[in-house]
Amino acid sequence: MQSINTSNQNSRRNAMLIMALCGVMWSLGGIFIKLISWSPLLIAGIRSIISALILGGYMWYKKVPIKICKYSIGAGVGLSGSCICFVIATKLTTAANAIVLQYAAPVFILIISAVFLKQKLHKKDVVVVAITMIGIILFFFDQLSPGSLVGNFFGILAGITLAIMLVMTGLGGKNDSIRMTGILIAHCLTSVIGTPIGLMSTDGTTGIEILYIVILGVFQLGIPYVLFAIATRDCPPLAASLIAMLEPLLNPVWVAIFVGELPGIFALVGAVIIIVAVTWWCIDDNKSVES
Question: pTM, whole model, 2 decimals?
Answer without folding.
Answer: 0.90
